[in-house]
Amino acid sequence: MLIREVQEKKEYDLLSPYASKAAETKGRLFEEEKCSIRTDFQRDRDRIIHCKSFRRLKHKTQVFITPEGDHYRTRLTHTLEVAQIARTIARALSLNEDLTEAIALGHDLGHTPFGHAGEEVLNEVCPYGFKHYEQSIRVVNFVEKNGKGLNLTWEVRDGILNHPSKGSPGTLEGKIVQISDKIAYINHDIDDAIRGKVLTEEDLPKDCIEVLGKTFTERIDTMIHDIVKNSINQPYIKMSPDVEESMKKLRKFMFSHVYIGSKAKEQEKKAQHIVKELYYYFMNHPNEIPKDFYAIYEGKDEAQERIVCDYIAGMTDRYAINKYCEIYVPSSWSIY
Questions:
Q1: How much is the mean pLDDT over the chain?
Q2: Tens of pLDDT, residues 43-101
Q3: Which of 152, 184, 188, 261 sits a CA distance of 20 to 30 A from 212?
Q4: Fold designation for 47-265
Q5: What is the spatial distance between Cα 75 and Cα 247, in angstroms, rounded to a whole number?
Q6: Where are the domains of the chain?
Q7: Neighbour-count burial of 154, counting CB atoms closer than 10 A to its CB (0-12 exposed, 13-18 middle, 19+ buried)
C-alpha cells in the first residue's frame, strides 16, 4: 500500500464523519497522477507555499501602508495567523487539518499592493470589476507557473473563493477559514493600531471586552474555545450568540475607528493614486509589461484590462512604488 493510501485511510479512522476526506475530493481542473506520499490536500498546501504569489505576500500591506517598525503585520503574517487559528480549530473538531491549512494559506494570494486600498481602485477602474478573492482563484487557476496554474483541488478552490463574509464555503474546513480570517484580522489589527497609537486599550468597547477578554491572547482564546464548544460533532461551524455578537461589534468598531479615516489610512490616497496611474499607463503602453509575463497570455482570449489587473495585483507595495517612480518621477542625469 502506498504511503498516500495509508494517510487517506487514517482520515477515515480518525476524522469526524463531517470532515472532508482527501480520497473523496471532487478533483482538480486537470487530471494528473497522484503523489505516492502525500494526499491531494497536502499536495495543494505545498504548492501554495512554494508559489511566487505566496512569497510576495510578505511585502504587501495588511492595514498600515509603509509602517515604520518591524512588528506590524503584512499580508503574509496575516495569512500565517489565519492558518494557525484555523488549524487549531480543525484539529480540535477532528476535521481535515491539511485542507484547512491549504485554504488558509491560499485565501489572500490575489490581494493587490496596498491591501484593500489597491483592491478598491482596481474595482473602480476595471470595467470587469475586481475582487481579491476572485483574483486569488485566477492566480491559482491560471496566473501561477507561467500560465499553467497550480491545478488545486475543488475543495481548496472553493474555500479560497468563499472566504469573505458573504461567501458560502462548501466544506466545514472552508467555513473554519472564513471565521478564522475574521478572528485573526480583528485581533491583530487592534494590536497594530495600539502599537501605531491609533487606539488605546481604553478605547475598545467595554461590553465586547467583558465577553471576549482584555488582551489579544484572551480574545483569540475565547473565540476559538467558543467555536469548538458549539461546533464539536456537529455539521456546522458556529459561535455562541453572545460571543458572535461581541465579535461583530468589535469588527464594526474597527471599521469606524481604524479601517476608515484613521491615522492608519493617511497614506491610502497616495497609494490609490499610484495604483490608478499604473493601470492607465499599462493600458496605454501594454508593450511595457514584461515580455515573460505577457507570454502567459499567448494564444488565449484575454481582455487587456484583465492582463493589466493581473500584472498590477501581483505587485508588492515597493515594486508598485518603484515602478511608478520609474515612469513618472524624473531621474537625475549627468553628461559625464
A1: 95
A2: 999 999 999 999 999 999 998 887 767 788 999 999 999 999 999 999 999 999 999 99
A3: 261
A4: Hypothetical protein af1432 (1.10.3210)
A5: 21
A6: 47-265
A7: middle
